[in-house]
Amino acid sequence: MLTRALSDRYTGAFRSVALTLVSELPPGSTPTRWRFMQRNRILAALAGATIVVEAGARSGSLDIATRAHALGSPVGAVPGPITSAASTGCHRLLRERIATVVTNAEEVRELLDSRGSTPQRAFDRAPFFASRRRATGLAL
């Protein structure tokens, strides 16, 4: 999906930045709803914590947050106005005790520290990456 989103003017910038692209799909795959939902599984597994800032009732962010919670990863939500449709999802996460209230950067840091979350621990926690690491001998 990345190859479809980038124009030629951004390609040079990405060559000068060290990054890792993780995908279960080949380059050039067409974005679809189910592929975004599939991608959410990867995001939830890799994140040291998931913070939802705004989410409507049917937001894809809720899927990522729910998957992260199921993996035992910390989830935070920024509460918003009770009259805003864009706050509905965050309020649901808080009401269902999936997420912790986050109102500033220090609280995000506390959320990360609460589980000792680091990128390496995120890889260790994700079953897919753990099995790949054993099978290939990779040190991620």
Task: Jot down its keywords.
51% helix; mainly alpha; disordered C terminus
Task: Describe how the helices and strands are arranged.
Blueprint: H1 2-5, H2 8-15, H3 33-46, E1 50-52, H4 60-70, E2 75-77, H5 88-95, E3 100-101, H6 105-114, H7 119-125, H8 127-136
Parallel strand pairs: 1-2, 2-3
Helix pairs in contact: 3-4
What can you see in these coordinates?
The protein is mainly alpha-helical and 140 residues long. The chain has eight helices and three strands. The protein has a three-stranded parallel sheet with strand order 1-2-3, with helices on both faces. Strand 2 (75-77), helix 5 and strand 3 (100-101) form a beta-alpha-beta unit. The two termini are 23 Å apart.
- Succession of helices and strands: HHHEHEHEHHH
Number of helical regions = 8
What form results from the Cα inertia axes? Answer: globular
Cα-atom Rg, whole angstroms?
17 Å
Number of DSSP E strands: 3
Helical fraction: 40-55%
Instruction: Provide mean pLDDT, rounded.
Output: 77
Strand content: 5-15%
State the end-to-end CA separation.
Answer: 23 Å
Give the helix/strand class: mainly alpha
List low-pLDDT spans.
128-140
Please summarize the sheet with the most strands.
3 strands, parallel
Query: Order of strands side by side in the largest beta sheet?
Result: 1-2-3
